[in-house]
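Homework help board

Subject: predicted structure for assignment chain

Our instructor gave us this sequence and asked us to write out the predicted structure in token form, then describe one feature. I got the tokens but I'm not sure how to describe them. Can anyone check?
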Amino acid sequence: MPILSIFLLTAACLPVEWPAPPFGLGPGASAGLTAAAVLLPLAAAFAVRTWVVRALRRTPDRKVSIGQGYGRLRRVLFFVNLGTVVLSILGLGWGWTTQHTLKVTWDLELQLAPFAELAVPLPYFVLVFGCWLIYYDVDRALHHLSFGGAAGGRFWSRAGYFFHHLRQLALLVAFPVGLFVTQQTLTRFAPEASETDWYRAGSVGAVLVLILLMPLLMKPLLGLRSLPAGPTRDRIEALARRLHFRCADLLVWPTHGHTANAMIVGLIPRVRYVIFTDRILEEMPDDELDAVFGHEVGHARHGHIWFYALFLGLSMTALAAVMLLVVQELVVAGVTVPEGYSGWVTLPPVVLAAGYVFLVFGFLSRRCERQADVFGCRAVSCGDPACTGHHAATKYPDRGAGLCPTGIRTCARALERVFLMNGYDELEDSGRRTIGGAVRAAFGWLRAWQHSTIPRRVRFLLSLIDDRGRERRFQRRLVVLRWGLAIGLIAAIVLLGELVTWQELRKAM
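My token output:
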């Protein structure tokens, strides 16, 4: 869950005066307690690893159910790890210890060392790195049982597995958090420059350039390579031409069969890539792979990436204005922050932003994902709304203009296959309502908060076969939702800008 990790790490790096260690303990004792706290979930992870490996050796025919149980336990331990990080920073004094030991002299004053904020969430990184090394044995055992002696059966070395995950963490989590910490460091050591308009404009410009050029960084960082020439590339390129879609390249993400997924990155065609993992290319039938590609093209065709950038930019501006208005009202009311707690006022905006992204952006993203699913159906649909099957002579309309039952079923099968290939639970609902089932459903929803669960997406697509008007109603409602959100946020910013003054809002950004 990269976004949850980003907000947790950002909160940990805020200029907050963290609580001192309990019982009057010093930095050394705080570090010892933190180390002990971190070892407990690592020990639990090792126990899970030992159980799974032994169970797979005894009963390899139960690898599916054992793998599903392992996945559920691993997700539970993920939240245990987050709780351990919070406990270490707030309850065991680790945050206070880093702030009071990592000091340097600057302009004859003691200052927190450059990038020292990253030491506050150090327990998080220790837990993540430790779990990678521990879980390696389980993932290797599951991989070998799935592939055996096949060509795709070669798994990473432990170091290769570690660096595969490290690359993803660096790109999805460490990079945005690093930008935030860099801004904190510049503000601390060059406060006058950081308050100027040129600095703010330069910061915004730098972020925009990084967003535009991020796909160029992803290629070497994740070890991506061009999809080799051959029938698969020829077919996908022909489909791209039929859909009138342009991108810089089609890329393969080598995961040694560990992941089945596809994605599109890049705002403009010259730096836009469509990425397939090796497993999805090896195991997905041609027509279903075309539907997966059509899904990614749907994100570009409907402008989802551009709208996400606009929506998040407007949202963060509106949230900053709301927090500034609250602060101004508290000042007018004579409310003051007690000495030593001034840094804590930076924490509520992060919590508010996290909740907003989870609820509002998640709601929007799930519907855009469904819209991309529909386009995936259109990419493999003929022009006959009552067709009963496709054959070699089937004609497909340009730009994905058709929508037929065969195309819908093909895309639904592709989603189901990706779901099962990634080791998730069964698609069918047994109808029984148990506490364990409710917990699994809750974790499944949390895992899919940004995309919705695969069973729900499949049910929606299949419902379009008998109710063709539902697709048109869905498209209209999503257009209204997107325009309503954009206009509403712009109106809120204009109103709040007048209330807090535009100059103050500009300083707060």
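Reply (TA_rk): Your tokens look well-formed. For the description, you could write something like this. Residues 2-186+303-427+435-508 form one domain. That's the kind of observation they're looking for.
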